Amino acid sequence: MTEHSRSEIDLSLNGFTVSQCIIDRAFTLRMLRPLQSDPNQEGNSLRIEAPFDFEMEGVTHHCDLEHDLQTACPALALLWRVVEAAHVNGQGGLQITFSGGVVIRVPSDPNFEAWTLNSSNGLIVSGPGGEISTFSSADGFTHR
Fold first, then answer.
1. Taken in order 103, 12, 93, 76, is the CA torsion positive or negative?
2. Contact yes or no for 103/95 (Cβ under 8 A)
3. Three-class HEC string of 24-75
4. Among 80, 63, 84, 81, residue whose Cα is nearest residue 72
5. What is the CA radius of gyration of the chain?
6. Confidence (pTM)
7. Torsion sign over Cα 64, 70, 71, 73
8. Which of 77, 70, 74 minimizes the C-alpha distance to 61?
9. Counting beta carbons within 10 angstroms of the beta carbon of residue 11, is it exposed (0 to 12), middle (13 to 18) or buried (19 or more)?
10. From the CB of residue 40, how many other CB atoms can be counted at a distance below 10 Å?
11. Rounded Cα gap, residues 111 and 50, in angstroms
C-alpha cells in the first residue's frame, strides 16, 4: 500500500466507455476501452460509496444512496458515455467528465471510504479524510 501526498492524480481513464451502471448500497460504474484499442485490456470498476453530484445539461442531481436509492437514477444516463477526463483533487475528491459534458463529482468523506477505483493500473482508494492509498502498481496514475 502506498499513501500519496495531497497532489492531483490523473486516473488515466480517458477513452473508457461506461458499460454497466450498478446500484446497490453504492453506485458502481464498469468501464471498458473500445475493442479496437486493445482487446486484452481489462476493464475498470469505480465504486462510489459516498453521496455524489451528477451534472447533465446544466442540472445538478445530488445522489445519496444511503438515504434514497432513487436519487441515483439520473446517473444511469452515464451508460455508454466515454470518459474525457478523470482526476483526484488534493482533498481526495474525484471528478470525472464524460462525453456530452456530463460530470460526476465525489467529495471525500471525513469518516469512511468515499470511492474505490479498481483498474489495470492498480487499486486506488479515497479513505477517511480523503487520504489516497494505492495498492499494487500505480504506474498508470499520473501525479501533478
1. positive
2. yes
3. CCCEEEEEECCCCCCCCCCCEEEEECCCEEEEECCEEEEECCCCCHHHHHHH
4. 63
5. 14
6. 0.86
7. positive
8. 74
9. buried
10. 6
11. 10
pLDDT digits (tens, 9 = 90+) for 130-143: 999 998 764 455 55
* Amino acid in the structure at residue 55: E
pLDDT single digits (tens) 5-50: 567 899 989 999 999 999 999 999 999 987 645 555 568 999 999 9
pLDDT of residue 138: 45
Query: Do 11 and 117 meet the contact criterion of CB atoms below 8 Å apart?
Result: yes
Query: pLDDT tens across 47-56, in order?
Result: 999 999 999 9
Over the range 92-116, which residues count as b (16 or more CB within 10 Å of their CB) and which as e?
A: bbbbbbbeeebbbebbbbeeebbbb
Which three cell numbers, joined as nine digits, stand for 36? Answer: 479496437
Q: Hey, where are the domains in the chain? A: 2-143
pLDDT per residue as tens digits for the range 74-113: 999 999 999 999 999 999 999 999 999 999 999 999 999 9
